Amino acid sequence: MANYIVEEVKMKNILKVILSLILFVCIVKVYAYELTYSEWSSEYPKGIDSNLIESEKRYLWYKDIESNIEYLKKEDFNNKLVDYNDFKVTKESEESLIEPEHFIDRVINKKVRNTKYTENDIYGLTINNINFKDKVLLSEIEVINNTNQEKLELIIDEKFSKLVDKNYDEYIENKENINIKFKNNQNVNNLLVKLYYKCNCENDNTFTFNYLSKDEYSIYNNSFEVQNCIMEINPSKLNPNLVKSQTFYTYTDKLYKTYNIERKLTDKYYKDYNDKTYTRLDSSEKTFYRYITNDELVFDDSGNIVTDPEHYCIKKYCIVKKYKKEEVPETPPETPEDTPPEIPEETPKEVPKKINNPKTLDNIYYYFILLTISIILLITIIVLIIKKNIKKIKLKLNNKSSFVELI
In 3D, which of 211, 209, 160, 210 has the Cα closest to residue 185? Predict the structure, then answer.
């Protein structure tokens, strides 16, 4: 009896090995393949089974680049973008007697400086603030050095040249400022000025007389009224102003970085972009499609494509679908030279590869035949093994009966 059980176990193991070999041969022969795809396109594929189509969301990517960078005052920003954390302070400006214009972030510094003059700092004279209500005619201006009674050589504008030509009989009418310079500096105490004029004066006719320093500051001055035909001006009639107090200004400006933004976009659409300085433009989302181009595919019982059939389909149910592509007709033979070529109505530039819907009947029939043959082969093997074992059992029973009779 023990021998019989051992034989039965051996028989089962042999059947398992045979069945595994048959299934292994079928799987390796039919399912060993790799997926191939069409090119990605933004157009949805027409006439293609939806199970074969893959989609992917892609985007344009952009990078904002700063341009036209300038450091400006707040008043000059206009429509430019500003980085208030990036600023510069200018160097202090040169000194000026003119107070500068005020701005928001401008810092203005004032310095009061006193300049002292002496009685020897006389370099010229001016007659200004002329307010003649009557007709006053000037003839000559003389500047005399009292120490030697010499007349100084005067430098005067061309239009007033007749006032220093020593012609006392020629007169000019004037209400403009008269500026005269000396060739050398003079001591105010040594000077005497004579003005020659004529006037039928009935009203007040006044003017201001000034002795000027080298920087044309009035250090001696006074106002006079026209009276006689000759007026003499000596130092005793003038008021000294030997200290000049001046305010000098300097300033610094705070300038901020201003700029414009230029947006640089990628030329193509990408799902991800390698350059991490670029940002995805979500509003540019676009769907791209591709489809599987294999002639045969393996599906599981849920209709999903199996990408690893060599392992998956050993324990799971799978089905193979075949996709047939229509063949493109061959180019017709060339037309002989003596026969005019036929011109077709439309000549397509390219014949697309069309994939028909899956046709699975041929595959099912093929595998049904293969399964039937396998079953018949297994049954035959089982029957042969059973017959062999029955013969062995009969022989053993016959031996036992012969032994009993002998006893």
Answer: 211
Number of domains in the chain: 2
Amino acid letter, residue 153: E
What type of residue is 341?
A: P
- Neighbouring C-beta atoms of residue 321, cutoff 10 Å: 19
DSSP 156-219: E-GGGGGGGSS-TT--EE--S-EEEEEEEEE-GGGEEEEEEEEE---S-EEEEEEEE-TT--EE
Q: Provide CB contacts within 8 A for 297, sequence distance 6+.
A: 52, 305, 320, 321, 323
pLDDT tens-digit readout, 102-158 = 999 999 999 999 999 999 999 999 999 888 888 888 999 999 999 999 999 999 999
Q: 179: which residues sit within 8 A by CB, 6+ positions away?
A: 124, 125, 126, 156, 157
Q: Are residues 124 and 236 in the same domain?
A: yes
The model's pTM? 0.48
> Which of 177, 209, 241 is the last residue before a domain boundary?
241
Q: Using alpha carbons, select from 122, 405, 369 the residue that is nearest to residue 238.
A: 122
